[in-house]
Design goal:
465 residues, alpha+beta, four-stranded antiparallel β-sheet, elongated, disordered N terminus, disordered C terminus
Length: 465
């Protein structure tokens, strides 16, 4: 009989061992097999991604706001708690490699209905349970938990970099809004001054009533722009206050200018993104975690070897429970192997495999989106730089034309509509210079974010609490 029982067990173990040799896994050189671009389409001379990119703007006020956001931003703090949760899950996963002990104390009372006697029984047991990591199944589960933790850490770093980029962009948006407001206020003041001059000329019979109406309309339009821009400035400040955790203080005071970018950015090689950009690192760890889950689901289908032991006693008197002479112990080992479960374990393995395929496609999508983000930011910067140069020239010409048109109008050489048209062109050019300068800064920030460069020097990194 013993021989007959041993054969199925040995057969099960042999099948399990042969099955473990065919666990579907990602290729070790998976990342090297991806067809990555060798160089950027607009390759710089430097082969190292630029770190500490915040320093290039030379704005201490912005740096203080960044550190404040890293310390007080609610969304970032929530991300930090998610990392802490994953860390606890990792600790919990590692606990399976250790035996578990539990103690139980039980008291019961029974009554014999025939003799009408009561019997009291007390029992005390110390139980041990331990599963051997026979096929590496527990190691796969622990590996998955470790990779999930690393992925969450990378996502936290990506959240920090994104927050820094949002704060820097919001800061420059406020400066842009303030400069536009000053421009609109200046335009409104000029329009009011023009109205005084035109109205005086009308009273003297030098100008027509139409010129007065057109000038009044221009004044009202400029005042409307001022009111609109004042609201935009308040909104821009409110966005930054929310990012830095200062809302609704409303105490943000800005006295700065938009810096001009004179230096090119160090791009590094496209392959650097695999290890530099936290979002890509997180996506890779998530893929590896799914791969570990496939191995775990695969090994769930094989026998499990567990050891159980107990030490305890049962007596009618509590004081006798710990008596050495009456203690009893047992040690049992058992092997359990699934035989029939209606395809449940096979379906779980297939589901894990499909989830890994989804994660693989997500990784590839994230990877090539990252390359595209860099290339698009480079193209945008090149376009904005050219637009900035030509718009500055247009501004100079428009301002000169505006002054000349008003002088010619006062001399009776041109109609007032010519003056209005020249003022509009000068206004558009002036506002465009400010807006393009701000767009250049925002795009440069997005480029740094796309490349994954550190926003600060290593010694200056601030950990979110």
């Amino acid at each position: 009989m013993g021989v007959l029982l041993k054969k199925p067990i040995v057969l099960s173990i042999c099948l399990a061992l042969s099955g473990c040799m065919n666990i579907p896994k990602l290729a070790e050189n998976y990342q090297e097999s991806i067809n990555l671009p060798a160089n950027w389409q607009q390759q710089s001379e430097s082969m190292t991604v630029q770190d500490n990119w915040l320093a290039q703007f030379g704005d201490e006020n912005m740096m203080q706001l960044v550190h404040q956001a890293l310390d007080k931003n609610y969304a970032l703090q929530a991300k930090a708690f998610q990392v802490a949760i994953k860390e606890q899950q990792l600790i919990s996963s590692g606990a399976v490699f250790w035996p578990s002990f539990d103690v139980s104390l039980r008291s019961s009372r029974t009554k014999n209905t025939q003799t009408e006697t009561l019997t009291t029984t007390h029992s005390l047991n110390l139980n041990l349970s331990y599963e051997l990591d026979l096929w590496g199944k527990l190691s796969d589960a622990d590996r998955q938990a470790n990779l999930d933790f690393l992925a969450e850490q990378a996502l936290f770093m990506q959240a920090k970099q994104s927050l820094v980029a949002q704060v820097a962009t919001a800061w420059f948006k406020i400066i842009e809004a303030e400069q536009l407001l000053k421009l609109y206020q200046k335009r409104a003041a000029n329009a009011e001054q023009n109205l005084i001059i035109i109205a005086s000329g009308y009273e003297q019979g030098l100008n027509s009533a139409l010129d007065v109406y057109l000038t009044r309309n221009e004044v009202n339009n400029e005042l409307s722009r001022v009111a609109t821009q004042q609201a935009e400035l308040v909104k821009a400040k409110r966005i930054l206050e929310r990012l830095t955790g200062a809302y609704p203080a409303g105490e943000l005071i800005v006295n700065a200018d938009l810096p001009k970018l004179d230096s090119a950015i160090s791009l590094g090689l496209p392959a650097n993104l695999l290890t530099k950009k936290p979002a890509l690192v997180a996506s890779w760890y998530q893929l590896l975690a799914k791969d570990a889950n496939v191995a775990y689901a695969h090994k769930q289908r094989f026998p499990a070897l567990k050891l159980t032991g107990s030490l305890g006693n049962s007596d009618s008197e509590l004081k006798e429970l710990l008596s050495p002479s009456s203690l009893a112990w047992s040690l049992v080992s058992n092997i359990t192997a699934p035989i029939f479960n209606a395809g449940k374990l096979a379906a779980e393995q297939e589901r894990a495999r499909l989830e890994r395929q989804i994660s693989e496609q997500n990784y590839l999508d994230t990877l090539f989106n990252a390359f595209s983000d860099v290339e698009n930011a480079l193209t945008t910067e090149q376009s904005l730089q050219q637009r900035y140069i030509t718009t500055v020239r247009a501004q100079e010409n428009a301002e000169a034309a505006q002054t000349l048109a008003f002088e010619q109008y006062q001399s009776g050489l041109v109609e007032y509509t010519t003056v209005l048209e020249s003022q509009k062109r000068a206004f558009d050019a002036q506002s465009s210079v400010i807006q393009i300068k701000s767009q250049l800064l925002s795009n440069r920030i997005n480029l740094h974010l796309a490349l994954g460069g550190a926003f600060s020097a290593p010694s200056e990194l601030v950990e979110a609490k």
